[in-house]
TrEMBL record:
<keyword id="KW-0963">Cytoplasm</keyword>
<comment type="subunit">
    <text>UreD, UreF and UreG form a complex that acts as a GTP-hydrolysis-dependent molecular chaperone, activating the urease apoprotein by helping to assemble the nickel containing metallocenter of UreC. The UreE protein probably delivers the nickel.</text>
</comment>
<dbReference type="Pfam" id="PF01774">
    <property type="entry name" value="UreD"/>
</dbReference>
<feature type="region of interest" description="Disordered">
    <location>
        <begin position="1"/>
        <end position="21"/>
    </location>
</feature>
<dbReference type="InterPro" id="IPR002669">
    <property type="entry name" value="UreD"/>
</dbReference>
<feature type="compositionally biased region" description="Pro residues">
    <location>
        <begin position="1"/>
        <end position="16"/>
    </location>
</feature>
<keyword id="KW-0143">Chaperone</keyword>
<keyword id="KW-0996">Nickel insertion</keyword>
<protein>
    <recommendedName>
        <fullName>Urease accessory protein UreD</fullName>
    </recommendedName>
</protein>
<comment type="function">
    <text>Required for maturation of urease via the functional incorporation of the urease nickel metallocenter.</text>
</comment>
<comment type="similarity">
    <text>Belongs to the UreD family.</text>
</comment>
């Protein structure tokens, strides 16, 4: 038999300066045409390989594939996505994002900027982010919404791989609706982050997640605050109404399996 050649993964491009890391950006733009949503802009470089997925009704769907290991120390990564007026966009990733140290101790950045216009919707549902030992990542997600826009975010973070401590991780979520601040939160984990493993933040758990729902329909049926989960050892989730109209669900669990169950119990994913 003739052996089948197995393609090697793409090599990381050589940075312009040693230790400076990779600079890469992905851009997605969704536009309404008649009763459907089309994607006139779908472009990515570096680790971002953007693929059109099968649409769901009038919602366009995009899956982000990792074309190389990222983010590593010194990388500067950015995703920009816009749902224009009346468009409906769903974005996910094909696999978990693994933050690693890489050849330099410099921090990496992973910035996501999402814009949703009038009567449009956007779902941002990536696979979990894993903060590996000795990594150093600063992640941000900035969201700008029109008054009639609808938005859904679900993110999960794993603090360290099996049997190892996490790296240094700072995450920030900033949301503006109709030009006004709705939510701005920042959390740090790992070495040099005071109290990150205490009861005020991770409480000894290694899987952390949150779901954010922003929908004008919540004005008609505002939810009530509630706690999900009976046993602290297996995790808890709390549903918190926000002025917006919005709902924020935050969950802690020992692993992603239990974390997903808690988030799903609080708000079933579409």
């Amino acid at each position: 038999m003739t052996p089948t050649a197995v393609p090697l993964p793409p090599a990381r491009p050589t940075p312009a300066q040693p230790g400076s890391g990779v600079r890469a950006i992905a851009r997605i733009r969704a536009t309404r045409v008649g009763d459907t949503t089309v994607l006139p802009t779908l472009a990515g470089d570096g680790p971002f390989d953007l693929r059109r997925a099968r649409p769901h009704g009038n919602q366009a769907r995009v899956c982000i594939l990792g074309a190389m290991s990222a983010p590593l120390g010194g990388d500067r990564l950015r995703i920009e996505a816009t749902a224009e007026e009346g468009a409906h966009l769903h974005i996910t990733t094909a696999a978990a994002t693994l933050a690693l140290r890489g050849p330099t101790t410099a921090h990496a950045t992973y910035d996501v900027h999402l814009t949703v216009a009038e009567h449009a919707s956007l779902h941002w549902l990536p696979q979990p982010l894993i903060s590996a030992a000795r990594s150093n990542l600063r992640q941000s997600c900035t969201i700008d919404l029109a008054p009639t826009a609808r938005f859904l975010l679900c993110e999960q973070t794993v603090l360290g791989r099996s049997g190892e401590p996490p790296g240094r991780l700072t995450t920030r979520l900033t949301v503006h609706r109709d030009g006004r601040p709705l939510l701005d939160q920042q959390t740090s984990y790992g070495p040099q982050a005071p109290g990150w493993d205490g009861p005020a933040i991770a409480a000894g758990h290694r899987a952390i997640g949150q779901t954010l729902i922003i929908d004008p329909a919540l004005n008609q049926h505002p939810p009530h605050a509630r706690l999900i989960g009976d046993d602290p050892a297996t995790g808890h989730a709390v549903l918190t109404p926000l002025t917006g109209p919005a709902v924020l669900i935050t969950a802690l669990a020992p692993d992603t399996l239990q974390l997903g169950r808690l988030l799903q119990a609080a708000y079933p994913m579409p």
